Amino acid sequence: MKRCFITGVTGQDGSYLAELLLDRGDEVHGIIRRSSSFNTWRIHERFQNQDGQKKFYLHYGDLSDGMNLVRLLREIQPDYIFNLAAQSHVRISFDIPEYTGEVTGLSTLRLLEAIRQAGLADRVRFYQASSSEMFGSAPPPQSEETPFAPRSPYACAKAFSYYITKNYRESYGMFATNGVLFNHESPRRGENFVTRKITLNLARIKYGLSDTLALGNLDARRDWGFARDYMEAAVLMLEHDYPDDFVIATGESHSVRELAEQAARLLDMSIEWNGEGRNEVGRDAKTGKVLIVIDPKYFRPAEVDHLEGDATKAKATLGWSPKTSFQDLIRMMVEHDARECSREAYTKRLQ
Ligand code: NAP
Ligand code: GDD
């Protein structure tokens, strides 16, 4: 049994990771922020009614509060620390660059120092949620050998966190590992990331809950995997014999346009594209109705055009490989969102 400490436990990855660890019989401690609206839906609906076997504990905390982190680590004495907390939205990082640098970058240093202050540097194993976004404009396929070329305040902050994690490994001999994860999605994905935005909003259109979906760059390509598969990799990294840096990816990429077409097909709609640039629209081929429009507010000041990872090292060293195909991932998300929208439409009809 391992005692695990997760920052970002209320997020997509944190909720899958907590489940995986609890299912193995580990004890899980997560930090949650006090916020004006309830933000624990991903974990509460799963862990609220504990059956006595599950050891899941939530503590108030914030990555910007170093004293609190030291106190929590002293009290909890974790074996594993997973640092998943971040301002994780790339587009939004251009609006709040300083805050993103603080939370997504500097806070990793704060947490690593808290580990030292709490006297855990010799025994704790630390996982840093690094990102393929750090590769930025570097051409695909990207692997552990690819130099970083970050294109956003978010990516720059993640690059700082990557290097400081490596630095604490080299300077203090800490077991500090970077998981450089490519995009990973699920029905629990935040609604303003492009996969979920598409599956949810096309489902809303299908069930008459909204009219159109506004998107930005349709031609960006991403390597999209399933979040739970990727959290399995994070656990394997901390169970490995030594700390290191690992790329986690499917090795396959698709454009935002292909993603929208695939999601629409699963909802019995077929998209036909007309026009160019900002005037391009996606119409329902059967009815001619406009389903997708372009809104420049979703363009980024600097875009990452193509991410496609090479996870050969993780396969060879950790024995990890993805279990879920792109098609199955999008199907899972569409089915989830269609179910929710159909229920909402039904309730509206009754009112
Ligand atoms: P997410 O759903 O946006 O979750 C982010 C988490 O960080 C939330 O639990 C959030 O808490 C927490 N958080 C934000 N600011 C905090 C602060 N100041 N103190 C404490 N907690 C804070 O992100 P995700 O998709 O699960 O991703 C997990 C991590 O992996 C992130 O670091 C992300 O940058 C990185 N990553 C993600 C991907 C991906 O494709 N998903 C790929 C590579 C790397 P609240 O609920 O209170 O907001
Ligand atoms: N969010 C969003 N909304 N993205 C859009 C839209 C839109 O309306 N229209 C097009 N896109 C394009 C973006 O320009 C980008 O090229 C691509 O879709 C993916 O955008 P996101 O889903 O927001 O993800 P991301 O790749 O920027 O960042 C995610 O993956 C990173 C790993 O590479 C986040 O999860 C990061 O936290 C993570 O590190």
How is the topology of this model organized?
Layout: E1 3-7, H1 12-23, E2 27-32, H2 41-47, E3 55-60, H3 66-76, E4 80-83, H4 90-95, H5 97-117, E5 125-131, H6 153-172, E6 175-181, E7 184-185, H7 194-206, E8 213-215, E9 221-222, E10 225-226, H8 227-239, E11 245-248, E12 254-255, H9 256-266, E13 271-274, E14 281-284, E15 290-294, H10 312-318, H11 326-350
Parallel strand pairs: 1-2, 1-4, 2-3, 4-5, 5-6, 6-11, 7-10, 8-15
Antiparallel strand pairs: 9-12, 13-14, 14-15
Helix pairs in contact: 1-8, 3-5, 5-6, 7-9, 7-11, 9-11
Residues 7-8, 10-14, 31, 33, 35, 39, 62-64, 84-88, 103, 129, 131, 181, 183-184, 190 line the site of NADP nicotinamide-adenine-dinucleotide phosphate.
Structural account:
The protein is an alpha/beta fold and 351 residues long. 42% of the residues lie in helices and 18% in strands. The protein contains 11 helices and 15 strands. The strands form 4 sheets. The protein has a 7-stranded parallel β-sheet, with helices on both faces. α9 (256-266) packs across α11. The longest helix has 25 residues, at 326-350. The protein starts with a strand and ends with a helix. The model has no long low-confidence stretch (mean pLDDT 96). Bound molecules: NADP nicotinamide-adenine-dinucleotide phosphate and guanosine-5'-diphosphate-alpha-D-mannose. The site of guanosine-5'-diphosphate-alpha-D-mannose has 23 residues, from α4 and α7.
